[in-house]
Amino acid sequence: MGFQSILVGIGIAILLLIPLAIKWQIRFRQSFTGAVLIGLVAGLITNTVSVSFGGLGIMEQVSLEAFIVIGLAMSSAAYMFYRDPERNALEQDGIIVSPADGSVIYIKEIDQGNVPLSVKKGRSFKLEELTQTDLVQNGGYLIGIGMNLLNVHVNRAPVTSRVEMIKHVKGDFLSLKRPEAVLTNERFTTVFDEGEFKVAVVQIASRLVRRIETYLVENQIVRRGQRMGMIKFGSQVDLVIPKLKNARIRVRPGDEVIAGVSVLVEYESNLKYESDLSEEDVADLQVI
User: Fold this and answer.
1) Contact by Cβ (8 Å): 220, 144
2) What is the pLDDT of residues 170-183, one digit of tens each?
3) The pLDDT of residue 275
4) How far, in Å, CA of 179 to CA of 261, rounded?
């Protein structure tokens, strides 16, 4: 009975959780391992209950295991989502760090005079609020970071700076598959003035995101890696940077990044890796 319960638990967990993991863009190895572990625990609990009560029918067993699998999955996801680990920011000049945990989904060049377009699941968001600043008057780059349900959702300041602007663009919480979401979805845009240049962090909402919190106020001085806010459930964070002198982008699409720790950009005198790169590599890093 014990072995049967474990197999049934693992089967139920895989059937219920893997499709959700695919939908929420969680890596297969991570989701499969989690499903097997949750199914194993569900099977052991069900077997203990069955022994205690003198046996369970097949439907009772399946129902109980499905209930336990769902409960364990929700508890695990809540724990992963609400984690807020301490992070030690790098004591290094000339760097811009990631504002979010997740995976780099794109790096786009912003032409001089153009309004940056943030893209999420094929839909574009015109960041019109940035026209109120001189952030990208000479062009720049847009780095998109996708967050899944299991990422830490506390976002962090990319540079030591003064908070110049916090713009809450009110809107709906629509599925990003709907065309009108381009103009109506909720987001927070925070502009940081480093002194020599400015960067912006854009937190974008979607159907599952019901709340974006900011921990900052305008004119506040923040240090690199300081907590700046949190997006409730999986979403996307974009970093907007100007074209800096001698700057190099140190990530590529597909790279995993950690908020407050992973270096996205190096600039000025901090080009310690330049001698290790070919001309082709440098070109790829500058314009992607």
Assistant:
1) no
2) 765 444 444 443 34
3) 32
4) 35
Give ∠ CA 91-202-157 in degrees, rounded to 5: 20
Q: Round to whole Å and give the CA distance between 192 and 211.
A: 22
> What radius of gyration do the chain's Cα atoms show?
22
Query: What is the Cα–Cα distance from 241 to 247, expressed in whole angstroms?
Result: 10
Model pLDDT, residue 286: 39
Render the burial of 38-59: b for 16+ CB within 10 Å, e for the rest.
Answer: bbbbbbebbbebbeeeeebeee
Residue 35 near residue 150 (C-beta atoms within 8 A): no
Q: Measured between alpha carbons, how far is 59 from 224 in angstroms, rounded to an integer? A: 55
| CA gap 283, 261 in Å, rounded | 25
User: CA 107, 95, 87, 167 torsion: positive or negative?
Assistant: negative
Please tell me whether residue 197 adopts helix, strand or coil conformation: coil
Q: Active-site residue among 31, 98, 118, 235?
A: 235
Distances (CA, A) of 243 to 63, 101, 159, 206: 58, 24, 15, 29
Contact 153, 237 (CB under 8 A): no
Active site residue 76: no
The encoded tokens of residue 182 equal 């381009």
Instruction: Label residues 157-178 b or e (16+ Cβ within 10 Å = b).
Output: bbbbbebbbbbebeeeebebee
Angstrom distance (rounded) from CA 110 to CA 171: 25
Q: How confident is the model at residue 209 (pLDDT cuts 50, 70, 90)?
A: low
pLDDT surpassing 80 at residue 45: yes
Q: Residue ranges of the alpha helices (H) in the chain?
A: 2-23, 28-52, 58-82, 181-184, 279-286
